[in-house]
């Protein structure tokens, strides 16, 4: 079901944080990113594409020469939220025109792909509408819109967009997303991804390694490999290294990336249970840089519901994968996705989901009420579950998941964890980072201040475990190391 950690609001990873806006003579670009990590990555690459045309990122849409909405179609009412935002942008565009300025509006991503023609009808003031496989042409689309009027590009192109993207720009961040695989051939009955992102495609190994080398050279310590079915990765092997296979799986790619100088941590998301092969599972126990945290969506604990979803595995098969992962890496923590109230779900089906949650003991999870997506098989089923039933079941599931997450965090108290510090904390004098298990960890530094910790991996003794985060203090060795 797309990537993990979906959000209903515009992502906090808005691109304005990556580069400051340029001088007044530079054209200002504002990108609003909705949804998953893949969209965050795509927005960054859109900025790369537009940089040669003189666009620099701005913090707000006011005063921007070009506003791009990079949309997501996973969550409920996603399209309506985009149209609501477009209504606000229309007023700003009209105000700019009254001041003698031109403000272009572009809408990309999955909502644009799914209903591009309808968007042109409902919002004719939008200058460019483009799908997620077309943004490598965004500079040309903007130029055509300036000269000729509105542009619509939502056909899947013959060429692969990654072959036409510029070299990634270094951003000075300590963490980064890297897209390695796109599209989906699974056709889960609730999901629009195969229709908006297209068929599965894996980037060549050499291209991915080169991108990660650039990022690591600029100080990135951790990369998250992205894909709608990331562990279905089967990229072309580097020239001269194919051996018996012309393609590498994700496990072998991870082993190659672990050799990149300066890179300390590797993660990947989102994985499909049926694509957890032996080599990838073994990598969890053999590659030190591969973090002991895995997002492994199950969606339901009922075999009947899983069959209706076309997930292609039974509960016992999913649990067997979990057992193999824990045998390879005993300290691994798991997160998951759950859909509550899928058509035909009975109370017994839901009870089976609660049983699975208790059996696995997830450290974190994301759960949602089923919402129909037009054009998907599940949307046409006659046995839809009532909204009040879905809401009640979701509340019970989320309570169970929250208890597990809090227990996992509380069990970390007293442990020393390596934390990658990557941002200021919520409170003055506080710095935040991520544990190997992707938990937010907050520390109030003693010597050196925040600047001494940013971008560094240091040992932290955990002193508090909360519902969604940890607190801790630098160990004695880390304190000495952090001194300026």
What does this structure look like?
The longest helix is centred in the last third of the chain and has 25 residues, at 387-411. It contains 14 helices and 21 strands. It starts with 26 loop residues before the first strand and ends with a helix. The radius of gyration is 23 Å and the shape is globular. The relative contact order is 0.08. Helix 12 runs parallel beside helix 13. The strands form six sheets. A six-stranded parallel β-sheet has the order 2-1-3-4-5-6, with helices on both faces. It folds into three domains: 15-156, 3-Layer(aba) Sandwich (Rossmann fold), CATH 3.40.50.12160; 162-410, tm_1862 like domain (pyruvate-formate lyase- activating enzyme); 416-482, Nucleic acid-binding proteins (OB fold (Dihydrolipoamide Acetyltransferase, E2P), Beta Barrel). By secondary structure, it is of the alpha/beta class. The chain is 33% helix and 21% strand.
What would the keywords be for this entry?
Rossmann fold, alpha/beta, pyruvate-formate lyase- activating enzyme, single chain, globular, OB fold (Dihydrolipoamide Acetyltransferase, E2P), 5-stranded mixed beta barrel, 484 residues, 14 helices
Helix-strand layout with pairing:
Elements: E1 27-33, H1 37-50, E2 55-57, E3 66-71, H2 78-98, E4 104-109, H3 110-114, H4 116-122, E5 128-130, H5 138-148, E6 151-153, E7 175-179, E8 181-182, H6 193-196, E9 201-202, H7 205-217, E10 222-226, E11 234-236, E12 247-249, H8 250-257, E13 265-269, H9 278-286, E14 293-295, H10 303-309, H11 315-328, E15 333-340, H12 347-360, E16 364-369, H13 387-411, E17 416-424, E18 431-434, E19 440-443, E20 457-465, E21 469-474, H14 476-482
Parallel strand pairs: 1-2, 1-3, 3-4, 4-5, 5-6, 7-10, 10-13, 14-15, 15-16, 19-21
Antiparallel strand pairs: 8-9, 11-12, 17-18, 17-20, 18-19, 20-21
Helix pairs in contact: 8-9, 12-13
């Amino acid at each position: 079901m797309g990537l993990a950690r979906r959000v209903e609001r515009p992502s906090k990873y808005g691109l304005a944080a990556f580069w400051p806006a340029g001088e007044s003579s530079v054209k200002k670009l504002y990108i609003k990113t909705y949804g998953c990590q893949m969209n965050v990555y795509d927005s960054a690459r859109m900025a790369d594409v537009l940089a040669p045309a003189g666009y620099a990122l701005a913090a707000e849409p006011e005063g921007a020469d070009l506003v791009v909405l990079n949309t997501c179609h996973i969550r409920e009412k996603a399209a309506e939220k985009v149209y609501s935002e477009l209504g606000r942008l229309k007023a700003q565009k009209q105000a700019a025109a009254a001041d003698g300025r031109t403000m272009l509006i572009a809408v990309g991503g999955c909502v644009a792909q799914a209903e591009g023609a309808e968007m042109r009808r409902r919002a004719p003031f939008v200058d460019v509408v483009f799908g997620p496989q077309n943004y490598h042409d965004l500079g040309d689309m903007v130029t055509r819109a300036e000269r000729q009027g509105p542009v619509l590009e939502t056909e899947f192109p013959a060429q692969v967009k990654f072959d036409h993207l510029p070299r990634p720009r270094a951003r000075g961040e300590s963490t980064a997303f890297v897209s390695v695989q796109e599209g989906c051939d699974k056709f889960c009955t609730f999901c629009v991804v195969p229709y908006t992102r297209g068929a599965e495609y894996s980037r060549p190994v050499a291209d991915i390694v080169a991108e990660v080398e650039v990022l690591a050279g600029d100080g990135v310590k951790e990369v998250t490999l992205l894909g709608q079915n990331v562990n279905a990765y089967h990229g072309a092997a580097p020239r001269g290294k194919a051996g018996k296979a012309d393609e590498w799986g994700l496990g072998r790619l991870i082993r190659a990336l672990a050799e990149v100088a300066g890179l300390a941590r590797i993660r990947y998301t989102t994985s499909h249970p049926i694509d957890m092969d032996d080599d990838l599972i073994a990598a969890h126990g053999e590659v030190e840089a591969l973090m002991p945290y895995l997002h492994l969506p199950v969606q339901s604990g009922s075999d009947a519901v899983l069959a209706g979803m076309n997930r292609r595995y039974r509960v016992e098969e999913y649990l067997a994968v979990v057992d193999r992962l824990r045998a390879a890496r005993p300290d691994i923590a798991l997160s998951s996705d759950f859909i509550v109230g899928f058509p035909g779900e009975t109370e017994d089906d839901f009870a089976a989901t609660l049983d699975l949650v208790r059996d696995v003991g997830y450290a974190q999870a994301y759960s949602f009420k089923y919402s129909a997506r037009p054009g998907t098989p599940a949307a046409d089923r006659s046995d839809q579950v009532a909204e009040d039933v879905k809401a009640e079941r979701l509340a019970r599931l989320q309570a169970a998941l929250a208890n597990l997450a809090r227990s996992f965090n509380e069990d970390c108290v007293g442990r020393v964890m390596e934390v990658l510090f990557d941002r200021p904390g919520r409170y003055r004098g506080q710095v935040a980072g991520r544990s190997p298990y992707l938990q937010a960890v907050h520390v109030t530094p003693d010597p050196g201040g925040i600047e001494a910790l940013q971008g560094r991996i240091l040992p932290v003794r955990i002193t508090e475990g909360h519902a969604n985060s940890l607190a801790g203090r630098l160990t004695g060795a880390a304190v000495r190391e952090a001194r300026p």
